Amino acid sequence: MVSIAVFILSCGLIFTLFGIIRVLFFWKDHQVKNVKNWPAVAVLVTARNEADFLPRLLNSFDQLDYPEACLKFYLYDDQSNDDTGKILDEWCSRANGRIKIETGESNQDFSGKNGKALALARLCKVAQEEFLFFTDADCTVNPEWIREGVSCFSSNTGMVIGVTKVKDSSLFGKFQELEWWNTLIHVKIAADLSFQTTGLGNNMVIRKAAYDQSGGFEQTIFSLTEDLEISRLIHQAGYAISHQFSSKMLANTKSEPDLGSLLVQRKRWFTGVVTLPWAWLILLNFHFLYVPALLLVCVTYPILGILFLVSKLTFQSILFRLAVSRVGQKLNWPEFLFFDFYSFLINGLTILYYFYPSKIRWKSRSYS
C-alpha cells in the first residue's frame, strides 16, 4: 500500500516537473500574424437574470479596441425576470451593431435541454461574421481581446481558447482562482501538445466555418457542458484548437460565494468530466489521490513524506508562478500551502454530491 502511495506521489512530482519544462522551453504563443484587414467579428452573450453583473461586462465591451464597422454584438435575453432585458435594451440603443434577441419559449418547452446551448445555437444562426467570440454575462474582457483572438488563427485553427481569472479577494475566492489556474495550465500544455482539450465558454473564439462544419451548438443541447462538447465537435471536424495564454486574452469572472453554490456548479461540470478521454481521467485521479497518498507516507515514513510535501509545494508554486506570469499576473505563496488539501476536499465533496440523487440546478432551471 505504501509503495503505491509513493508511486502516486512520484508521478505527481514528475507531472509537475514536466509542466515546468513545458513552460520554460516549449511554451507556444499562438499570435501568428499582424492583421492589416480586420475581419468581421461577432460577440455572442447569453444572459439569464444577470442584472447584477451585466453592466460591468457591457462597460468592458465599450472599451474594446476594434474597428466598429467590423464588430457586432448579439445578446440573448434568456427569459430573465430581473432587469437584464432593460439593461440590454438601453445598451443596444446607444450604437449600431448591437442586437438583442429574446426567446418566446416557456420553461416547460426545454424538456431537459440545455437552455444556454439552445440560446447559443440561435445566436450562431443569426451571426454570419467570420469569427464568433463568446463570453459570459458575469465576466469582463480586455480591450485587446478581439484583436488578440483574431490574430491567433492560422489556416487550420478552428477554436482559440483564452484565459479566465477568478477575481475575488476572499480566501475562498483565492482557492477558486488557484483551481482555475491549475485547470488552465494543464489545458494549455495539452493543447500545445495537440491533445484534445475543452472549450472555455466564458472566453473562446470559434471560426464560423468551423462552427458550421461541426454541427454547432444544436448538437450539444442535451449536454450541460456545451463548451466541452463544441470543442470535441470542432476537433472531430479536423480543426486545430489553440490556447492563447496572454494578458490580452485575459477575462475576469466572479467566484462562487459559498460552498453550496460551488458544489452545484461542480456537479454540473462533473457531467462533462466523466466523459473526458482516459488520459485526462488518469491525470485527475492522480491529482485527487495525492493527499491520501501523502498522509499515508507521512504516517509510515515521516521524513520521506515531508520531503515529498516540500518538493511538491516547491515545484507546483514554480509552475503556477511561471505560467501565470505569462499573463502578467502574480500569486501569493501562502495560498499554495493548503491548495492541495482544499482541492482534495472540494473534489471529494463534488464526487459525493454528483452521485447524490438530486437534480442539477443551473440558472434557475433544473436538469435530471
Description:
This protein is α/β, with parallel strands linked by helices and 368 residues long. The chain has two domains: 2-26 and 262-367, no CATH class; 41-162 and 200-255, Spore Coat Polysaccharide Biosynthesis Protein SpsA, Chain A. Helix content is 51%, strand content 15%. It contains twelve helices and twelve strands. It has helices at 2-25, 54-62, 84-92, 115-126, 145-151, 171-192, 208-214, 226-236, 259-273, 278-300, 302-325, 333-355; strands spanning 41-47, 71-77, 98-102, 131-135, 139-141, 157-161, 163-166, 203-207, 240-243, 250-253, 360-362, 365-367. The strands form three sheets. Strands 3-2-1-4-8-6-9 form a seven-stranded mixed beta sheet, sandwiched between helices. The chain has a three-stranded mixed beta sheet with strand order 5-10-7. Helix 1 packs parallel to helix 11, helix 6 crosses helix 12 (333-355) and helix 10 (278-300) crosses helix 11 (302-325). The longest helix is centred in the first third of the chain and has 24 residues, at 2-25. It is globular, with a radius of gyration of 21 Å.
What is the CATH topology descriptor of the largest domain?
A: Spore Coat Polysaccharide Biosynthesis Protein SpsA, Chain A
Helix content: 40-55%
Can you write the helix and strand succession as a string? HEHEHEHEEHEEHEHHEEHHHHEE
* Basic shape: globular
CATH superfamily annotation of the largest domain: Spore Coat Polysaccharide Biosynthesis Protein SpsA, Chain A
Q: Compute the gyration radius: what is it?
A: 21 Å
Q: What characterizes the major β-sheet? A: 7 strands, mixed
Side by side, the strands of the main sheet go: 3-2-1-4-8-6-9
DSSP helix count? 12
Terminal Cα span? 38 Å
State the secondary-structure class.
alpha/beta
Low-confidence stretches: none
Strand content: 5-15%
Q: What CATH architecture of the largest domain do you see?
A: Alpha-Beta Complex
CATH class of the largest domain: Alpha Beta
The tally of beta strands, per DSSP, is: 12
Domain tally: 2
Overall residue-averaged pLDDT value: 91
